């Protein structure tokens, strides 16, 4: 069984989808640790609800991004995961993390990368009158939302869509493709 670490900053609906997929053995893995940089993240409660080990590493306690990443590396080395899954983790990682866990960190992003890296993706897609948006799972490297794409799924943007409705539709897709991408990664050589 593969060991998975999940890093969060907020609501944790993707975390919940992954917990579910592990419980149902859709993913042959267990979430051994959830790490949040935000002490108020609702995702912490989700970890507690499922008796999953969690740790808060508040980024505000660190002077530099590198120092914060060092604390992450230390914690992750203790649990020695096969895969580190960023699920709504709102921090840009430095090479301290990416070099310690090269090709082992993945992220989910609410756009059809390489379009719309960073924030406000739904707003940008609607403003540009795009026909499709979607979600992308990718490997994390030093550059924001730029690593190798593992899986992508698109959704049609309707004329009636607002940023909020599009966000909801894409989040649903995220919950479907994240477990699939993880299975693909863990079972590939
Ligand atoms: C998701 O849209 C994810 O793509 C983005 O942040 C959001 C997190 O949602 N990186 P949740 O915390 O998993 O509910």
Any overview of this molecule?
The chain is α/β, with parallel strands linked by helices and 189 residues long. It contains six helices and seven strands; from the N terminus they run βαβαβαβαβαββα. The chain has helices spanning 13-23, 42-49, 65-79, 95-100, 121-127, 163-187; strands at residues 2-8, 29-36, 54-56, 83-86, 105-109, 132-139, 149-156. The longest helix has 25 residues, at 163-187. The structure holds 5-O-phosphono-beta-D-ribofuranosylamine. Residues 10-14, 87-88, 108-110, 171, 174 line the site of 5-O-phosphono-beta-D-ribofuranosylamine. 5-O-phosphono-beta-D-ribofuranosylamine is lined by residues 10-14, 87-88, 108-110, 171, 174.
Mean pLDDT, nearest integer? 97
- Principal-axes geometry comes out as globular
How far apart are the termini? 15 Å
Q: How many extended strands?
A: 7
- Rg measurement, Å: 16 Å
Main sheet attributes: strand count, strand direction, barrel closure: 7 strands, mixed
Bound molecules: 5-O-phosphono-beta-D-ribofuranosylamine
Main features:
binds 5-O-phosphono-beta-D-ribofuranosylamine, 38% helix, seven-stranded mixed beta sheet, 7 strands, 6 helices, single chain, globular, alpha/beta, 189 residues
């Amino acid at each position: 069984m593969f060991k998975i670490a999940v890093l969060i900053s907020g609501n944790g609906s993707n975390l919940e989808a992954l917990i579910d997929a592990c419980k149902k053995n859709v993913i042959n893995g267990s979430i051994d640790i959830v790490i949040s940089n935000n002490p108020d993240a609702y995702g912490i409660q989700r970890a507690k609800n499922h008796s999953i080990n969690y740790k808060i590493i508040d980024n505000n306690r660190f002077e530099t991004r590198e120092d914060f990443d060092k604390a992450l590396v230390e914690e992750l080395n203790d649990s020695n995961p096969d895969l580190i899954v960023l699920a709504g983790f709102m921090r840009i990682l430095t090479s301290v993390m990416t070099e310690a866990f090269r090709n082992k960190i993945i992220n989910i992003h609410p756009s059809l990368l390489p379009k719309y890296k960073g924030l406000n993706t739904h707003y940008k897609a609607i403003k540009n009158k795009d026909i499709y948006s979607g979600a992308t799972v990718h490997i994390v490297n030093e550059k924001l939302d730029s690593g190798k794409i593992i899986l992508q799924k698109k959704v049609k943007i309707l004329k009636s869509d607002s940023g909020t409705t599009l966000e909801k539709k894409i989040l649903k897709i995220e919950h479907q493709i994240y477990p699939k991408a993880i299975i693909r990664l863990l079972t590939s050589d």
